[in-house]
Amino acid sequence: METTEVMEERLPPADWRPRKASPGADALWLFISIAAVLVLARIWVAPHASAPALQAWATIFIAICVQALPFLVFGVALSAAITSFVPARVWTRVLPRHPAAAVPVAGVCGAVLPGCECASVPVAGGLMAKGVAPSAALTFLLAAPAINPIVMVSTAVAFPRDPGLVAGRFAASLTVAVLAGWLWLRFGRTDLIRIPQGPPPGAGRWDSFRQAMRHDLMHAGGFLVVGGVAAATINVVVPASWVDSVAGIPLVSVLILAVLAVLMSICSEADAFVAASLTQFSPTAKLAFLVVGPMVDLKLIALQSGIFGRRFAVRFIPLTFALAVVVSLAYGKAFL
């Protein structure tokens, strides 16, 4: 029989703990596994399903997810890289000192630098913390996820035969972002915005990049799946006669897709594929869907309320929604 001293020597140290797998890694592999199951189900299960509606639903859903996934992954990776490796002080050097002139420049910066909705809100908060005028930071917040290069390429892929809609998304979204910035500069109050403090020293840049990549991919991927389910259901479940009757009313159809964009909360790198699947609606209604979604949706409402405060959100979000609908209607009537 072993002595007590020998047995104690074989015990692990008091501070020893089993190594746990990273939650982000587990979530990433779960997302990949679900995507693989969906693709295999489309190949093996859907052909044997007897209901034509089920086959149509599976085809639409898989098409949306498979087409949008590469843009989603690429956009999330670039957004995480910008958030982790580009210091906020760079923006203070790029933007003009006068707030009115800084607003359109911030909009143009959003057009050339990719960033998803989830990243644009904390980035805008970081810009404010570094001294950038709130109106310019808010313009960047709206423009970056709406008209960045990844979003515009994905929109062109989703609408290969409709370049007017692609150009309309860029022009209308930039117009809304600049107008919202100027209106906030003129009528907004600084005391309504809870400006975040600068980030404390923490993990390294590569660790921040990996964490942001995992979080944003899972977060945006989940909303993509929800959006695909909703779009497929609308195309299959909702009676065609009802959709046609509603889609034929210009103002009503625009408002319906604008509200739907808020509720579906799809990542801007993927929303064009969902809009392209809504074939019953007019180009103007699709444009409203594409303009509203990256600027006002459920996750943005939560993020803006949490970072900038509820008093700011209840004023800025309705302003953005109204501008997006009005500008989309005006552009659609004039050019589409």
TrEMBL record:
It is found in: Cell membrane. It comes from the Bacteria. It comes from Actinocorallia longicatena. Keywords: Cell membrane, Membrane, Transmembrane, Transmembrane helix. It is a multi-pass membrane protein. This is Permease. The lineage of its organism: Bacteria, Bacillati, Actinomycetota, Actinomycetes, Streptosporangiales. The chain crosses the membrane at residues 27-45, 57-82, 136-159, 165-185, 220-242, 248-266, 313-332. Belongs to the UPF0718 family. InterPro entries: DUF318, UPF0718.
